[in-house]
Amino acid sequence: MDQALLSYVRARLAQARPATGGRQIDAFLSSPAFSGLLPTFGARLAREFDRFLADALPPPPQPELPDLALRLPNARAGERYTQRIEVLGKAEALVFEALALPAGLILEADLATGTLSGTPPQAGAFTIVVDYRYAGHPGGRQRRALVQLLVLPDPRTMWQDRPSDRKDPYWKPDAQCDSVRGAGLATLAASKRGRAHAHAGGFRDDDFRIAHVAASGWHLAVVADGAGSARYARRGAALICEQAHARILAALGGSAAARLDASVHALAQARQDPPAGREDALHEALRTDLSHIVGNAAYYAVRAILEEVAAHPDPDAQFRDYASTALIAVGKRYPFGTLCAAYWVGDGAVAIYSRRGGVTLLGAADSGEYAGQTRFLDNAAISHAMLRQRTQVALVEDMTALVLMTDGVSDARFETEARLGRSADWHLFWEELERTAGVGVPGPWSGNEGARRLLDWLDFWSPGNHDDRTIAIVHHVDQD
């Protein structure tokens, strides 16, 4: 054979099949198949030879595909989970042939999509065995990967509920609820120690008092939020509620109630037939009268705290050790509407809610320079000018409820002051109270059942909001 031809053939073989050894090339050159090419020379040789290579030689081996690293996003115990197995890095499509889940991981596996779904009941680290193949290589070998799924614990289960110290001189129950009814209104209130205090075995700093003055038909509600940084805050909140409760009961059970009734009727009449400026004048006069009732209640609360400080055995005790907010409100139902008045110092909220009219705030939350700051009831808040300024009055035709709440509720459910004044958010809030606590839902009145449902509702979960929670609600009911 021509040596030039043999050299050409050897070079082309080596170029076309680099993995082919020299002995394999020699065997091929001496084969009858190659001998059939010898008569073909000239320009056709390369074309015929390349065609022969494609038919006569086996295909080159494919490069080995790598095993893959697979992953699943974390899950959380008690929450719905639906996630597909992810491939780390770039890879071809996969065919999942088996997904073996360990005991305790109650999820459903979809082999067609590589998806796990369900609600894992418990936290832990679980290893899932995954058998797969490359989709584009049906004859390829089956591969196996171990996938770790981390199920995080439900944060609600991580909170402890340690009892507070009953031997403390200022001890009070960790939860409290109460209800009263009369004169076409029902008042419910509930207060619950926050998770942060419960976890540490601390005290409930919030407090409340409610009452119905049967002689005059008025309802009253007082809510206070003791400052978490003040060592006797729980006592300060209790004193505010006790004093406001006692003072308002005395005032609205006497002759002041009759004078208020006359003023409210006059205001309602002025709305029907208003001479210029008469309605405003009557409203301001009524506001002054009510500031002498709800505002003076705050005044006597401050005096009670000062007396407590003076009598305390610790000579270093100070007024600020009893720091607390104060939300004091009264309401009465009339044939033409409901009259509400409130004195408000600190954060939280006091508001009149109407399904038709939306929300009317009876004041404004006191915000500090930094997040979470507020102001508390003190001497500056009970000057004559401040008592009147902080007392707000509203006569509404279609009130659904008068609501007082500490920031443990308002921050969790409204988040911002802007949303606190937005009627749409109040509609959602009231729908939640109706649906989950039965507030305002017509039905038989059974002891303190409504208040207990409200107390249960206060245990709602809100990430990052674990302060004490207190709420008082005065709402319409069928006339007794």
Automatic annotation (TrEMBL):
Coiled coil region boundaries: none
Span of domain PPM-type phosphatase: 193-420
TM annotation in the entry: none
Top-rank taxon: Bacteria
Organism field: Massilia hydrophila
InterPro entries (alphabetical): Ig-like_fold, PPM-type-like_dom_sf, PPM-type_phosphatase-like_dom
Protein's name according to its UniProt entry: Protein phosphatase 2C domain-containing protein
